[in-house]
Design brief:
Radius of gyration: 18 Å
Strand content: over 45%
Helix content: under 10%
Shape: globular
Largest sheet: 5 strands, antiparallel
Number of helices: 1
Oligomer: single chain
Order of helices and strands: EEEEEEEEEEEEEEEEEEEEEEEEHE
């Protein structure tokens, strides 16, 4: 920590990083900036909770849940959609009254939904993962406006970070179990993917690729679980920038704020030993930093 900075503020790689909520989440994940409310939503999967943070007022709210939510997004019709350990769920606007509307993997009891996002037509994409992170039993699904759930491909170990290029022609998808961020050709009209290829293969010494977002210039940002870092990659998958974080388990990030130039970063403390937590006591907290670019506005689920 740089001299003169508070215990919740750090300076790394020329950037000031603030822990705005030392939430101590077990598995903080899937930050979602809601442009209508100007607040950030995020989840604690193992803690069975959804969090809401208002950066303007500083208000913090926690909504305990019956299920393990891996991701959520706003619905155009009101409320939220999310992926859980029991399938695709709809929630009321106050994050209560959960309804499971589809469970595409009823026989895979060791699977749960993990990360998910909406494309710019409002389709909700979410993938499943083996909770033991061993077997390739996961799949990537797309939920249409009608709430029909289509499987697009399988043999995934840990389905994770998703994002789309600004021109909607490329979809990025992370399989953390393989250490790979994939790229696909994407048809925004039909919502189909093709031409799967490796975009980035992450060196295990740098951690495991986790959550993902794309900025307005088309650069891909990836959180590194166990790597204490965030990496920014150019259009060809070449490393452009590294931001070192003050905690090891960096899980995901989302652009937010009035100009979408603040990067909100979720973290975790899952399976950390006591001495590791002592060395990084803000593990599981929510962080924010200003960046020299703008993000892309999130789209609500069309259903």
């Amino acid at each position: 920590m740089a001299k003169g900075l508070s215990e919740n503020r750090f300076k790394r790689n020329g950037k000031v990083i603030d822990c705005v909520w030392p939430a101590e989440t077990i598995l903080g994940e899937a930050p979602y900036w809601c442009p209508e409310e100007s607040v950030l939503y995020w989840v604690d999967i193992d803690g069975k909770s959804i969090f809401r943070f208002d950066p303007e007022s500083g208000d913090r709210d926690i909504f305990p849940q019956e299920y393990e939510f891996g991701c959520i997004a706003k619905r155009a019709k009101g409320g939220f959609i999310g992926g859980t350990n029991k399938g695709i769920a709809l929630l009321a606007n106050d994050l209560t009254s959960v309804e499971i509307v589809s469970n595409p993997e009823p026989n895979l009891l060791e699977n749960r939904f993990n990360d998910g996002k909406c494309d710019r037509r409002g389709r909700f994409w979410a993938g499943t993962a083996d909770v033991n992170e061993i077997d390739p039993t996961g799949s990537l699904y797309c939920v249409e406006e009608s709430l029909i759930v289509d499987r697009h491909f399988s043999n995934i170990i840990v389905s994770n970070g998703l994002g789309w290029s600004p021109d909607n022609r490329t979809m990025y998808f992370t399989d953390s179990g393989l250490q790979i961020i994939h790229a696909f050709d994407y048809d925004i009209v039909t919502g189909t993917v093709a031409n799967r290829r490796n975009f980035v293969v992450v060196d295990p010494l740098d951690g495991i690729p986790d959550g993902l977002t794309v900025d307005a210039e088309g650069y891909v940002w990836s959180a590194h679980w166990g790597g204490s870092r965030i990496s920014r990659y150019d259009h060809n998958g070449h490393l452009d920038q590294v931001i070192e974080m003050p905690v090891p388990m960096v899980t995901s990030m989302a652009f937010g704020g009035k100009n979408l130039n603040k990067l909100f970063v979720t973290t975790a403390r899952l399976n950390m030993e006591e001495d590791q937590i002592k060395a990084a006591p803000l593990s599981g907290g929510l962080f924010v930093l200003d960046v020299d670019c703008e993000g892309l506005q999130e789209t609500s689920f069309c259903g």
